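Title: Prediction job returns without error message
Component: structure pipeline
Severity: low
Priority: P3
Assignee: unassigned

Description:
Job completed but the reporter wants confirmation the result is attached to the right record. Sequence as submitted:
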Amino acid sequence: MVNIGARWKWSIAAVALLGLATATYFLKPVTGPPRNLALAGDAARGAYIIRLAGCGSCHTDHENSGAALSGGKPLTTPFGTFYPPNITPDKQTGIGNWTLAQFSDALSNGNSPRGNLYPVFPYNDLTLMSDQDVVDLYAAVMATPAIAHTTLPNRVIFPFNIRLLVSGWKNLFFSPHRYHDDPSHSASWNRGAYLANGLTHCVACHSPLNALGAVTSGKRFTGNSGGGPGGKAPPLTVLALLQDGYTRDSFAETLKTGLTPNAGKVGGEMGLVISDETSHWTDDDRKAVADYLLNLK
């Protein structure tokens, strides 16, 4: 007969080995393809990318007349309250000491020099950015005025306050990659797809989230009635947009002026997005997003 104590020892060893294998898998680093960071940065072009990416909306406390990019108002989520950091080139309170490689790592892989970034920062979408856009954005951010302003530390509930566990989230939900054009669609459609899914991260706000805060599989752009950091967001499916009376031109007009086809006016968080971001986009980019969303299957 096999000794009962020996059985327990083998069982404990098996459980320990399984736990170690699971931890090794879920805590392994998640990184995407390498970028070409030797490109010349264009700060003027990068200033437009700041508008496209909505950096000002999140990282500026408009309600309290905060300086641009010096830290935003609190974002309340089921996991706690996050305080968007100061991303001006101030060396003590901002990101003035960050290299281009570190900046790229944050956008592309969700890493800061101090470890994992919480996915409330939309690196899940920004990872799609082109190498040139990353380099230009860095040049623009580093060309902004350096503001000495310390933001409050995040108040995240246990166990999510353990940043190492974000590696598990990344292994489950994050697949860093770059956007590649779909040759079956027009240049405008592809530009809209790049913007809506990546740089402008419309998908992050206008999609439902699962219990761990990731976009629900198969539900992209179907709306977020439960609300997220940006509040509740309506669906952007073809059916929903057509039911609201949108055409390509009228959708582009809403992004420019905030006026809707039914003579309404967009307010709330989206109103701020329009005033601070989309109203400053080019007409071509507004129409590109409309082309994509109104032809999305």
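Comment from assignee: result matches the submitted record. The chain has two domains: 43-173, 187-293.
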